[in-house]
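New to this. Help decode the following:
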Amino acid sequence: MSKVIFTTRSEDVCHVMEAHQHQKVDCLASDEALSLFRMKVGEDTFNSHPEIPTLAEEIVKECKGLPLALITIGRAMADKKTLRRWDRALQVLKTYPSTFSGMEDQVLSILAFSYHSLSNGPIKSCFLYCSMFPSDYEILEDELVELWIGEGFLTKSHDIQRARDEGYDIIQSLKEACLLDSSDQSEKHVKMHDMIRDMALWLTTKPGENKKKVVVKERARMVESRDLAEWKEAHRISLWDNIGTQSLENVGQEVPFFLDLETLFLRRSSMYEIPTGFFDKMHLVRVLDLSHNYRLKSCGQLNQLVNLEYLNLSFTSIYSFWNIVQGLKKLRCLILNFTHLKEIRISNISSLQLFSMHGGHLRIPCDEQKALLKELESMKDIKEISVILDNDILVKKLLNSYKLQSCIRKLHLQRCSNMISLELSLSCVQAMVHLEMLQISSCNDLKDVKINAKDKGKQGFILRYSMVIPKFCKLHEVHVISCSKLLNLTWLIYAPCLQSLAVGDCESMEELIGGSDGASVVEANSALFSRLTTLQLENLPKLRRICNWVLPFPSLKIIYVHSCENLRKLPFDSNTGKHSLKKIQAEQNWWEGLQWEDEAIKQRFNSFFMPSEYMDLYQVLGYDY
């Protein structure tokens, strides 16, 4: 029987061709890449100076294992035998790679075939936009999709959730076209190969392409006058790392040059403030990202940006927001995650559709927060809300508002003193159709979280005889940290789509899922933990079990357990995590003391075990900012 082997850059081609096996071919490892490059350069040139091999290694790093680039650049360097020419080549590759000999015709134009094969204009715009981030940058998918929404690349309707789903579909399409890669560190991030990024930036500069001109400058400690002259026609500018206030003052003096500017990133800088007048005449700016400027306390006269639709001030030290938003009548997306705000008023932003203020430690007084919830509730266009609540009064406000429940996407309950029980009605569960992430931290009076139904007899009938069980249909991430009196998390039976669960520093917790209620739901719906990929358990001294019955965990990849000395048995059998499990991280002594049904099961899971040290969940999950 004959076989046909074919290669393609698009996974869609594999599906259309009904390929029996798919084998992804990764870029070359560093030693293989250097070997290929050395072969194309030739031994005579490679050994012509003792420092050339070191420079060759640096050039190979710039190619990131892409054979096409290694071959083209290697051939171009074959007759270069002086250190000056090798130094120059390395500098060009780091700054203006498209100008390197052979790169445009033999590398970038070939890579661009994948871009030209994309199905429509919006997906092409989304791809080119990824080049706004620095090389090797791990791009958070949520952040990328929200920027696309702010730019207007996605669905034009007021349905933010529909636009978000469209954005995630586009990310998947770009992965299948080998134009974006999955991150090695996190399933929430994507990255762009350096040569693909160079191709995208090259495309934005080609004449006659009708594209937005993009300027990206990394390590922008100083912005020089010659830089400003080159940027005068830019539609999008992205400045990263250590840009100072003096540089911005230089830019501010040249503001008339930026009359066409629509998008501005200023990130990871050492700035304390944005100079007065910096935004003068930038009337077309629609997207402004000032996030990750940790020292930034003042951001000038933002209210001059009358066309602004997207504003991100996450990870800044800005503490007052009232004067900032005056006049921003068109603002649709406002993102204030991990900020130090002490006051906030948004009632004058009537066009707001997406509001996000989660992460970190809240400093806003309860009355201000209550007013904020009331303002959000009254907005007719608001579709998506992510917030921190630190008072049981605020939680009750949320649970009594269908409007707020139906918009909530990420919810963090933090330091809610006097909240002994968190009771959710079935109607509340059904209303929270967009809830994706729930965090409960430092709620030290909380003893239980439960789903209540007024008609318990009817609920029992539903659970036992109906396949339609009320549930959090999108909840995929739950963190429960430092809730010292909480006994269990049995309510998770209503979260069949859960993908990540982290539980730590809950001194009283004895089981995750317990009681007959859990068993009855599993009888009606076997989806409990069926999508769970990551389970993290830390410092749970009384935890005796995860649940009282064996679970298949068909999607589970990673288990992390630390300081759970009373957890002596896992709900595993020989089929648990059969096609998904990658590693189990825990203390060696705990692992050796586990009880198993038989030796065969123990041996199977032994191959996944990796001894690990303590990992602070507060730090890992971002609670320590």
About this structure: The CA atoms of residues 186 and 525 lie 30 Å apart. The two ends are 61 Å apart (CA to CA).
